[in-house]
Design a protein that fits this description.
Blueprint: E1 19-31, E2 38-46, E3 52-58, H1 62-65, E4 74-78, E5 81-84, E6 97-100, E7 106-109, H2 130-133
Parallel strand pairs: 3-6
Antiparallel strand pairs: 1-2, 1-4, 2-3, 4-7, 5-6
Length: 161
């Protein structure tokens, strides 16, 4: 039987019978900063339209998914919960939804690579806009670098070789 996959933009909290075909883009362990206790396993998932969503595996069920979840892989996910993201931070710029895995969630690695799903998605912000958004803790911002000028290549000799 052919599985019907939903797109991330179709997810709503009112329904929990979704099947997803997504790439696990990034994965990290969220910890309590004071006690260093693991709170959850967090992930960024991307679908074939390039939409991205934050997914969370609560600490009580992390052991159930550690063998099945690997960055970069295409996966089938079903039986998960969708809710509005009310967290203090959002690792995804667009969308206000969040996925929560449960003890019933099913994850399978997809061997069939019949659809292109990018490995990463970036939401670029103009460098001059960073001061206005850095005080909004809702969205995480990474600054890579600022290019100030392009000049001719210059050979510099160091003392002692």
């Amino acid at each position: 039987m052919q599985v019907r996959y939903a797109l991330l933009r179709q997810l709503t909290p009112s329904k929990n019978r979704w099947n997803l075909k997504v790439r696990l883009s990034r994965m990290w362990t969220a910890k309590n900063f004071v006690t260093c206790d693991v709170r959850s396993l967090d992930m960024l998932l991307i679908d074939e339209h390039g939409d991205q969503i934050h997914a969370v595996v609560p600490k009580e069920v992390i052991h159930q998914f550690t063998e099945q979840l690997h960055e970069g892989e295409l996966i089938h996910v079903e039986k998960f919960n969708v809710s509005t993201n009310n967290a203090t931070y959002h690792p995804v710029a667009e969308g206000e939804q969040k996925i929560y895995f449960s003890i019933d969630t099913v994850v399978k690695k997809l061997e069939n690579q019949d659809v292109f799903i990018p490995m990463h998605k970036f939401s670029f912000v103009d460098f001059n806009d960073i001061p206005t958004i850095c005080h909004k803790p809702k969205y995480l911002t990474d600054v890579i670098e600022k290019l100030n000028a392009i000049t001719e290549i210059e050979r510099i000799k160091k003392r002692n070789g």
